[in-house]
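Please discuss these two lines.
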Amino acid sequence: PFILTAQGTDNDGATVTTTFTLNVYNPGRMRFEFWKAGSAGVAKMMDLNGGEVINMGSGFPNTFNIHAIPDGPVAGVEFSGSSNRTDQAAPYTSSNETNGQSASAGVYNFTIKSYQSGSGQMLSQQNLNFVLNKMPYVNTSSPLSAQRMLSGRQFTYVIPSTAFKDDDGTITIQVVPSTLPSWLTANGPTLTGTAPMTAGTFTLTVRATDNYGAYVETQLIIEVISLIIELRPGSNYNSSTPPLQILNNGDVIPRTGLPSKINLYYVFSGTAVKSTSTTITGAVSVNGDDISAPFTASQSGTGFTTANGTYQVTVRFYDNIGRSGTPLGTKTFTFQIQ
């Protein structure tokens, strides 16, 4: 609007002034707003310029309306396309002002016309389009499970697509780069790398993005477990007594000075390991299971007979005491006593 001042002067030079408002309209222009309706209550949510993707997150209303706001007085506004309605009184809405129209995921295309008062001549015709998009979400019935591995081992894991859902589109899965540890490489949902030698827990943020750019995130825990293998006497375990030797693959141990019975003790980082299963072949034959720390190759306090030769050891460790399912990891190594 413009504020104008008018002045009148008589023949004696006296003056009088007054002000008035001049409103200038562009009858061929409208703007649009997205409103919630129905039981959610009637309220404006956002302005619309066309081309928007409106994500239907938690609490999104079940019904909505498009409000057309002409730039000046009109006789009415006609909506066609995704709704069909002529409204002759402001507010000009795409459907019943209170009830609205159903908010379903999809593409909406409106043709909106305004008409001049009196003559009924069309003043403007504008097209408005937007998308109502259902956002992806985490599938709570198939959450990401923690991944565990031995330090120094190769690691490959494909993040399952079943961890997420999208009811009206497609999703792509990736790890947020800033949460990726230096020893891991991500190619989409596939993670590869070599676990560090030091134990640790790594929290990655996994993002599922739909075809409209909406996304949801969840966390993936990766635990690197270190394993120290101690060679100890077969007698009862004494934590204050150092082991006879820390074993590494290929070690050769002199027989001299070893007790008549020995045992292998497994020291894991963290608390994920709940049971172990050991097979030893070669110089001796041992099959032993343990369901509590300290985990041993053979019965604690008994051990197995010390013998010269090569010991071929396979130890599997589990996250349950029943040793069921896929082991958390398997370590195979050899050592010699001579």
Observations:
- The first strand starts at residue 2 and ends at 9.
- The two ends are 103 Å apart (CA to CA).
- The CA atoms of residues 52 and 130 lie 5 Å apart.
